[in-house]
Design goal:
This protein is of the alpha+beta class and 284 residues long. It contains seven helices and eleven strands. It has a five-stranded mixed beta sheet, sandwiched between helices. The chain has a two-stranded antiparallel ribbon with strand order 1-2. Helix 3 packs across helix 4. The longest helix has 30 residues. The radius of gyration is 23 Å and the shape is globular.
Length: 284
């Protein structure tokens, strides 16, 4: 199809473009990661740490292993997220036939695949990544509200790493703690830059109160122009706190927070129901 020059906004030129027919196997409006073709729904059989497992073709090794009670260290992966950034570098596994270890959060399962989660080379890479994270992470675990559910502590234990290991020089950032909200506190010093809170706030909820800023060692999660969270677009929904694997985001008062979040969830459900009723009334 050709577009006239005056319609294209380019005087004296004709713009050509092509209309690509829709693929019937991928319907219009199906977002990335929300639709599987018939081919992707086939079952495959693989082995992880000697355990025979059936999984759907296209599933990632990480989720397949976790679903079958085989733990693989990870910090940045979210099941709802279509593509994992593999930024934490903790989920390395060894696959027979592969030249080098692969990240379990990005590698899809295949028929006949044999996976070793505790291979010597993969474990060495994961231990180094974990020790680097611990080298600039505050280790006041006894006073941390997430001490009993800290994923970093769980990973250190799984990999056989001493929390206060001194292989790498300690580099603490001493950044100010944001205590401006009534629901939760943000301590950027404990942040492991997994990106879960950023993805939930920006992509899943569409709020966009927080994001990554700066580069290298100075990279942090922050608000626009580093304003306090109370002055940002934050709605205090608490979803970022729920996905935080460490003590960077913590609720202040569990009872008050539970009540506040329940009220907020109820308010959102009421709004959703009202919108649904309006749509139904228009149809009738």
């Amino acid at each position: 199809m050709k577009l006239p020059a005056h319609r294209a906004g380019l005087p004296g030129k004709v713009i050509s473009f092509y209309i690509v027919p829709l693929n019937p196997a991928y319907p219009a409006g199906a977002g990335r990661g929300t639709f599987r073709s018939a081919h992707a729904m086939k079952d495959v059989f693989l082995t992880i740490d000697g355990k025979n497992i059936k999984a759907s073709q296209g599933d990632k090794i990480l989720w397949t292993a976790l679903e079958h009670d085989i733990y693989i260290p990870n910090l940045c992966a979210l099941r709802e997220k279509p593509d994992s950034p593999a930024s934490c570098r903790l989920c390395f596994v060894e696959v027979e036939g592969a030249i080098e270890p692969v990240t379990a959060c990005t590698e899809p399962v295949r028929e006949g695949m044999v996976v070793h989660t505790k291979g010597k080379f993969a474990q060495r890479i994961a231990r180094t990544a974990a020790e680097l994270l611990l080298s600039n992470h505050p280790l006041d675990c006894a006073h941390c509200l997430k001490s009993r559910s800290c994923e970093l502590l769980k990973i250190a234990k799984h990999l056989g790493i001493k929390v206060k290991a001194n292989r790498f020089r300690k580099l603490e950032r001493n950044l100010p703690i944001d205590d401006s909200l009534s629901i939760f506190t943000f301590d950027p010093n404990k942040c492991v830059l997994c990106g879960k809170c950023v993805w939930v706030c920006q992509e899943q909820l569409g709020i966009g109160a927080i994001g990554f800023t700066r580069r290298g060692f100075k990279r942090v999660v922050s608000t626009y122009q580093d304003a306090p969270l109370a002055e940002s677009r934050c709605s205090q929904c608490g979803e970022c706190v729920k996905v935080c694997p460490v003590g960077a985001l913590t609720f202040k008062d569990s009872k008050k927070v539970h009540k506040a979040l329940s009220s907020e969830d109820k308010r959102r459900r009421n709004i959703k129901n009202d919108v649904s009723d309006v749509k139904k009334s228009r149809l009738t």
